[in-house]
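pls ignore typos typing on phone
iron/sulfur cluster + seq
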Amino acid sequence: MKPFEYRRAATAVEAASAMAEAGTLAIAGGTNLIDLMKLQVEPPDRLVDVTKLDLAQIADTDGGLRIGAMVSNTDLAVHPRIRRDYPVLARAILAGATQQLRNKASVGGNLCQRTRCPYFTNIDQPCNKRAPGSGCGAIAGVSRIHAILGASKHCIATYPGDMAVALAVLDAKIDILRADGTAHSVAARAFHRLPGDQPELDNVLEAGDLITGVRLLRPVGGKQLYRKVRERASYAFALCSVAAIVAMEGGRITRADLAFGSIAHKPWTDDRLSDLLVGEQPSLAVFDRAADILLDDAQGYGENDFKISLVRRSLIATLCDATGISA
Ligand code: SF4
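k done
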């Protein structure tokens, strides 16, 4: 591993200001970053340890919740308010990684995890995300886990996490502190970005930006589900996932919020689905139309062509579960 300087930040402003220096990365649980450092994929000059910052609380705010960036995935998933009011978030977190990893992984770190594209993690392979301008090995290569929506000719990677998919369906907000001490927030749906011609940028964070927490809005009614499809039953990243909040009244759908994981460079949302579904009586025909809309621009790259029909079936199965009709 390349030698690096280590500092422990005493305050969030101190951490943000240190992170403004080129070559500096924040370390929290380290469940992704340490692996990438060992592989020389992300060899920082400096690490700023943010684990002792006062950011590990979960607190009520206006009927919603504010979750500190250093709350562990385990503590978040078992919190009584999360289990009662935001079960889609608890289910998504518990579908990810293993118990040991969830004990170490933080909310802020989870949002910043990198893609699991095998070309990204192999420094002998071309990868525009790791080495801009070197090419994309996956487009004509091994692409089983890669994107079918929103990709570019420069990168077809997916964002691999589960928690962020639930945050997208819950329309959560992400609080960010800047190096100059100012704070702002970004919608979870706008936090991760599409690759475009800058695939090296996973999200909207700039140098010196520190995630301080996540805010959940007042809970909404409806059934909350998280369906994850993967190669094996545990400790595997999703091939695709669906987070859903669906409400019914008088036999018709009154709410249909949906977000999809591991099919794009960011948790994928599409307002056209809600526009179609709300007001409809649930039926396989309606759900099939929703899948048509979701997938109208989907594109496979050979090995991942199967994902297009997998996502269709996953969406329809999730909507059937949520509305109580048979698939
Ligand atoms: Fe790199 Fe993206 Fe291509 Fe993977 S898909 S090799 S991360 S540029």
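Residues 223-323 form a domain with the Enolase-like; domain 1 fold (CATH 3.30.390.50). The radius of gyration is 20 Å. more later
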